[in-house]
Amino acid sequence: MDSYLLLGLAMALLSIWKTYSGPALAGFVGFSYPEMLLFNVLPALMAGCFGWFIGRYSFYLYARKNFHPHRPKLRRFVAAWKRYGNKTMATLAPVLVGIPLYTLVARRLRQDRVTTFILLSSSILCWSGLSYSLVNALDLSTHFNLQGLLTQIGL
């Protein structure tokens, strides 16, 4: 039971930033689809809420003189946002920049909260399902013996 919860925690931590990595791990260790949703989609959505509500305090961070808010990757993301719009960026956010940063930028650009979270939820579900399904469809767990490796290290 302890290894089950440790694997769930590892999947949740992986899914907070890059959505496709946690469901892939769930597919490797043989978790069911509802377990994958529990340990991956819910923490990803909580990270999105965290980024949204921290976004209101980010205004104070940008006001500091020594703080450099314009990182090259973030600058490219905002430029792509202005070019392609909220729908495309919500679709690519779990893969490109991560969920908390997407919601932080959406908050800074004054996007609608309901629209942002509907788009983000559908994107998280799609990327998680795709990652989990590919690992299971290609039967990657037999090619990479992750379960054997985990038993060797004591999990």
Automatic annotation (TrEMBL):
The keyword Transmembrane helix applies. The chain crosses the membrane at residues 37-63, 84-105, 117-135. Keywords: Membrane, Transmembrane, Transmembrane helix. It comes from the Bacteria. This is DedA family protein.
